[in-house]
Amino acid sequence: MPELPEVETVRRGLQPVLEGARLVKVEARRPDLRFPFPDKFSERLTDKTVTALGRRAKYLTMHIEDGPLLICHLGMSGSFRIETAESSGVPGAFHHERSKSSAHDHVVFDVVSPQGERSRVIFNDPRRFGFMLFAEGAPDTHPMLAGLGVEPTGNALDGPLLASLLEGRRAPLKVALLDQRLIAGLGNIYVSEALWRAGLSPLREAGTVAGTGKKTREQCRRLAEAIRSVIADAIAAGGSSLRDYVQADGSLGYFQHSFAVYDREGEPCPKPGCRGNIERIVQSGRSTFYCRTCQR
């Protein structure tokens, strides 16, 4: 499933086309995806202007003038593509074939920019695990967004805040970091990568890095910095193209070529001076990749 960097890459790809544009026609080609479309889905969006395109954790948020907030989730295989008058195909180089069947084009937004340029934004989802829902009232009260933790993309996530989130937690560190109530949008791939960068074992109790001593303060600082940097690096690289994920312009992300540990079981640890090998274990039903030699 696409993680935060993939969703942020999609947002940035859609932003120039959707922000400030008018939705002249919205077509839902089936009654549901993972969930049924909201009542009067097309009618409530048609002829409305998109004032902003945002992201909260792994959700895209489309802010509509005088309308509801539209919450979008890509699911396992969902993707957006942009079609303009100059290009009826999908630009970008592919390493993996994506769905081109119109049978999987489930939602079509016909938009007109403030300059009068017309384009189409099409949501394609072969597995139909994605969804689009309306949020009425304050966005953070919607069940999908309520209770989400701090975003890992800004300076708000620092050592002291991370220590306060992990204090007293006996769950393994990796499991705690995947708790969306603590850090929103942080997923399996990037937790493994961040823990390797910070030199911390995914198996240690989360609360052991939340003490007041000099050593634990330094560990929390390193971990917060590693989380922010690995997310920033992945966004800059366009995300990681695992299975069906593609960017909004049709091209694939390439951060997977920079993985230090994820999916590298049995390979030598890339940390200079470390003679360990990458191992794979299972935590809470999910694969964890780490080096037991340099991650303590």
Question: Would you write up a description of this structure?
Answer:
By secondary structure, the protein is of the alpha+beta class. The chain has 2 domains: 4-141, Alpha-Beta Barrel (N-terminal domain of MutM-like DNA repair proteins), CATH 3.20.190; 159-290, Helicase, Ruva Protein, domain 3 (Orthogonal Bundle). The chain has 6 helices and 10 strands. The strands form 2 sheets. The protein has an 8-stranded antiparallel β-sheet with strand order 5-7-6-1-2-3-4-8. It is elongated. The two termini are 29 Å apart. Residues 88-98 and 241-245 have low confidence and may be disordered.
Major sheet, described briefly? 8 strands, antiparallel
E-strand count: 10
Give the class-level CATH name of the largest domain: Alpha Beta
The value of Rg in angstroms is: 21 Å
Strand-residue fraction? Answer: 15-25%
Silhouette = elongated
Number of domains: 2
Gap between N and C termini: 29 Å
Helix and strand succession?
A: HEHEEEEEEEHHHHEE
Please, what is the CATH homologous superfamily of the largest domain?
Answer: MutM-like, N-terminal
